[in-house]
Design a protein that fits this description.
Layout (H helix, E strand, L loop, with lengths): L1 H19 L3 H10 L4 E2 H8 L3 H13 L3 E6 L2 E6 L2 H17 L1 H10 L11 H10 L2 E5 L3 H6 E2 L3 E3 L17 E5 L7 H11 L4 E3 L4 H6 L5 E2 L4
Parallel strand pairs: 4-6, 4-7, 7-8
Antiparallel strand pairs: 1-3, 2-3, 5-9
């Protein structure tokens, strides 16, 4: 009888994590925070929620000990509580992609008209970037780049791309990356560059995927 009570207690605690992530909005928030800490207002803007709803979702994730927060003046910043939270999200996403055909169908439907963007493998990309043979563009917002980015990458947010075309070499391949395989920023960047005559492709990885595969990431020094 005692063993059953013990098991019930343990599995109830496991279920807290399952309940906390049983929302597409909260999963999107975890995905965003894998890029670095953000204010409530930034999270609301990126996830298309109002402040009240974003705060409610953050409260659920924090109560399950998946997030931590800090206050700086009037701003409250949220971050992942542990690197294991990022690993958990990547594992959950990978399992879902492997088991749910609906994910592949949604991806295929959305990117139906996207050009062929077969990416370089990680080792080849790192070697070419080190030699200066390719230009690696991080097309996420600049604050996410500052938090952590791939070696040899240049920060060029998608919104600024068309104004900076003259600074990009036309004789080198350009590889764009953003927040991972389901982020559309790098797709849009590559399409834009190809229409203007550049040789461009994308990297499927974002920073969490790249780091999880054992490759180096340049991070902002802790203050």
């Amino acid at each position: 009888m005692r063993s059953h009570i013990f098991k019930d207690q343990i599995y109830e605690q496991f279920a807290r994590i399952g309940k906390a992530v049983a929302s597409p909005h909260r999963l999107e928030i975890l995905d965003l925070l894998c890029q670095g800490e953000k204010t409530v207002e930034e999270i609301a803007a990126h996830s298309r929620l109002d402040i009240k709803n974003a705060s409610a979702h953050l409260k659920v994730l924090r109560s399950a000990r998946l997030l931590e927060s800090r206050r700086n003046g009037k701003n409250v910043f949220y971050r992942l509580a542990d690197p294991a939270v990022s690993a958990f999200w990547l594992s959950l996403r990978s399992l879902a992609a492997r088991r749910l055909t609906e994910i592949r169908e949604a991806v295929d439907a959305y990117f139906e008209r996207a050009p062929d963007m077969q990416p370089l493998d990680r080792k080849t990309l790192l070697t070419k970037a080190r030699r200066g043979d390719v230009v690696v563009l991080d097309v996420r917002p600049a604050d996410e780049f500052a938090t952590g980015h791939l070696p040899y990458a240049r920060s060029l947010p998608l919104a600024e791309l068309k104004h900076e075309l003259s600074t990009l070499p036309r004789r080198k391949e350009i590889v764009a990356y953003c927040r991972g395989p389901y982020c559309v920023l790098s797709y849009e960047a590559v399409e834009f560059l190809r229409r203007r005559g550049f040789r461009a492709t994308r990297l499927d990885d974002g920073v969490p995927e790249w780091e999880s595969a054992g490759f180096p990431v340049l991070r902002k020094a802790a203050s």
